[in-house]
Amino acid sequence: xxxxxxxRVWFELALLALIWGGSFLAIRTALDEIGxxxxxxxxxxxxxxxxxxxxxARGYAFPRSPRLWVAFLVMGLLNNxxxxxxxxxxxxxxxxxxxxxxxxxxAIWGVLVAALxxxxxxxxxxxxxxVVLGFLGVATAIGLANLKALxxxxxxxxxxxxxxxxxxxxxxxxxxxxxxxPPLISAAGMLTxxxxxxxxxxxxxxxxxxxxxxxxxxxxxxYYALAATAFAYLLxxxxxAAAGAGNLLLVTLMxxxxxxxxxxxxxxxxxxxxxxxxxxxxxxxxxxxxxxxLSLFRRGN
Length: 301
Description:
Elements lengths: L6 H24 L5 H22 L8 H26 L4 H8 L2 H12 L7 H18 L9 H26 L5 H24 L8 H29 L1 H23 L5 H18 L1 H9 L1
Helix pairs in contact: 1-4, 1-9, 1-10, 2-3, 2-8, 2-9, 3-7, 3-8, 4-7, 4-10, 5-6, 5-7, 6-11, 8-9, 9-10, 10-11
């Protein structure tokens, strides 16, 4: 496996950042007409169908192991149902750009969760520095004074942070339980498990899955389900194979500016200066975790 950032890899990183950055606006657009649970049900259902079509076309066999399907169900809960639902609800009350900034904390939580679970993922001084800066970034973006009121806005921000923690546990679950499973099958199985849970859950709380929708809502659903979920997973694993997990951290840094610009352009959103300051601290923490800054510093000396 090569970790070289070739021009092609840079293009794919930028494309993935654009796709995922645009998903925040697409989700918020759909939420103008449908409930947040229904938005998640649409997302996992159509993404699962598309990925199975791709898997069958590539000749993959349908997994039959009960143990594997239990792993898919748990993965779907941790990586789709909980974070997608919390973040979709959060977006009803905070800006899309702020949601993307808080979402960038996923890697910070991932380091902590992995350190708690896996003996080979200990917290070095470098990692601890990155984690502390990441925490400071999240705290700055939210504004600790805002948490005293515990109003809808502060609860929405905490919901998004809760979604990032769920993502972190999903990463560790995948490492422990889906090792050796082809990435395409993992993604399709996970989304299928999510659909099996999400459809009845959304039906029980919000009613039948809405299908008679405005064209703009369908376009938004198609974007975040097919492009930003199904296709993005395929692109993500392609970049992972070509450039390694470390370089994928760059996508995390590239997503918020895309979401902020789209939110400003399409919905006239304006973020507080503390949001930008928080993202700067969070970005610094991620870069320290990645090791690039320290490498440049050592080279300069």
